[in-house]
Design brief:
This is AsmA family protein. It is built from three helices and five strands, in the order H-H-E-E-E-E-H-E. The chain is α+β, with helices and mostly antiparallel strands and 128 residues long.
Amino acid sequence: MVAFAVIFLIIFCLPFFINLDQYKSEIENQIQEKFFIKTKINEKISYKPFLRPHIELFSVDIFETNKKEDIYIGNIYKINLRINIFNLILRNFNIIDVEVVDGIIELENNYFDNFFKNADSIKNLKAI
């Protein structure tokens, strides 16, 4: 019973006392490394323990990074990042899963021309 109470405390209470805004630059860097887009988080980061522990990002600007200068391509209203809560508590932040809830992305007419040239590399891509 004591072990259950300790786990409950760690998962549901302790992360509320961690200043998640200190992870902004680290989150932006991890998203850039994993998805090859530059991001800028505009609002405060919040923690949500229910259903599955995750953090919420609101108003995230995204930029294309493969050119000499960053080009604004849109804004994502809400992103849910699933994280391992124990790594967050131990200050070892790592993104497990990304869920984009809503956003507006502006693409040029020829944006996907090079994207679809190598069909083998995108066979697991799902566009909804």
